[in-house]
């Protein structure tokens, strides 16, 4: 029997664990040479083969026999199938979000230190569209709390504005993912905190089954201001905004005039808040955008409970898409 020699570097495996070792097999090169060893790592380009003496040989796949190349293809296909099944069991969530879609709120912290809670339907309740997409992409609602939700407990920020989207009745009509970040005790939705929040949205969209054309931002009071600020910073990220009892900048509407906004405010709120929200809605409409506003004649600052329970708001919000043809007035 000839000894297989592909003129490859042999790597010492002094620290290599032998846990979960694969079965040793005989490998054959295209010219008939053979080598016995255990495949420790397999890619489409090479196989890392562990020999009995502890050395590791890297074998280029294109130098292997047709039989061994088929073995590599089958092994990679099985690995891909396992990955698809793992994503299905995790509801399509990957990375740090794996196992976080449970049908309940889960506390997390972003890579740059922003606390947030995430809610997603349990995977068993979501039907797969096909083998490649283990879970149907869902809209993502970002809820920005008011000043009373600030802190580091990673809990106060939920308020009714976040919780209402996860209610069973609402999920039955509008299944979605919800993320509620928490602003530091002495912070606001601007500057560095806003940058961290937007980075969180991007990261979530990369690792969760998110419909990128249907990401919404909704906030109350300080979070209402934050909603406008988020739209100003990254208008292309969001499909719609719903600010409540927190004004925007009428001079900035050109930045996000392609994003429909439905604002809510109580007439008994601070005069500057009411006037600011009305003028922002008017400016957005004048710029060619969708600047809806609902005012409650008998409402004060705390109108977010009423907004949360408004079925028309929910129906309107989930009709919105970044696809221009799908904008609903």
Give a short overview.
This protein is an alpha/beta fold and 329 residues long. The chain is built from eight helices and 13 strands.
Question: What global shape is seen?
Answer: elongated
Q: Let me know the number of strands.
A: 13
Rg calculated over all Cα atoms: 27 Å
Total count of helical runs of at least 4 residues? 8
The biggest sheet amounts to: 8 strands, mixed
Please give the share of residues in helix: 25-40%
Report the structural category: alpha/beta
Enumerate the spans where pLDDT stays under 50 for 5 or more consecutive residues: 1-21, 128-134
**Succession of helices and strands:** EEEEEHEEEHHEHEHEEHEHH
Query: How far apart are the first and last residues' alpha carbons, in Å?
Result: 77 Å
Average predicted confidence as pLDDT: 85
Question: Which strand-content bin applies to the residues?
Answer: 15-25%
Strand order of the largest sheet: 6-7-9-8-10-11-12-13
């Amino acid at each position: 029997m000839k000894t297989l020699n592909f003129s490859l570097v042999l790597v010492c495996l002094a620290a290599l664990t032998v846990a979960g070792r694969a079965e040793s097999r005989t490998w054959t090169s295209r010219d008939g040479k053979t080598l016995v060893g255990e495949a420790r790592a397999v890619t489409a380009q090479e196989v890392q083969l562990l020999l009995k003496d502890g050395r590791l040989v890297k074998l280029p796949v294109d130098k292997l026999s047709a039989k061994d190349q088929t073995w590599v293809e089958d092994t990679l296909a099985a690995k891909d199938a396992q990955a698809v099944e793992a994503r299905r069991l995790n509801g399509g969530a990957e990375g740090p979000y794996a196992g976080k879609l449970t049908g309940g709120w889960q506390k997390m912290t972003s890579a740059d230190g922003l606390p947030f809670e995430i809610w997603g339907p349990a995977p068993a309740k979501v039907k797969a569209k096909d083998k490649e997409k283990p879970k149907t992409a869902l809209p993502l609602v970002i809820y920005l709390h008011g000043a009373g939700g600030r802190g580091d407990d990673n809990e106060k920020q939920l308020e009714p504005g976040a919780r209402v989207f996860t209610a069973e009745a609402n999920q039955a009509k509008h299944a979605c993912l919800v993320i509620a970040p928490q602003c530091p005790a002495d912070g606001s939705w601007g500057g560095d905190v806003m940058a961290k929040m937007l980075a969180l949205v991007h990261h979530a969209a990369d690792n969760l089954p998110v419909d990128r054309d249907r990401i919404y931002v909704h906030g109350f009071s300080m979070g209402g201001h934050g909603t406008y600020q988020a739209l100003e910073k990254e208008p292309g990220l969001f499909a719609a905004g719903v600010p409540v009892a927190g004004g925007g900048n009428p001079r900035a509407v050109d930045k996000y005039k392609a994003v429909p906004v439905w604002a809510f405010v109580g007439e008994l709120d601070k005069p500057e808040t009411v006037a600011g929200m009305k003028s922002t809605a008017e400016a957005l409409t004048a710029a060619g955008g969708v600047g809806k506003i609902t005012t409650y004649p008998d409402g004060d600052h705390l109108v977010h409970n009423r907004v949360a329970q408004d079925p028309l708001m929910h129906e309107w919000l989930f009709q919105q898409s970044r696809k221009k043809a799908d904008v609903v007035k």
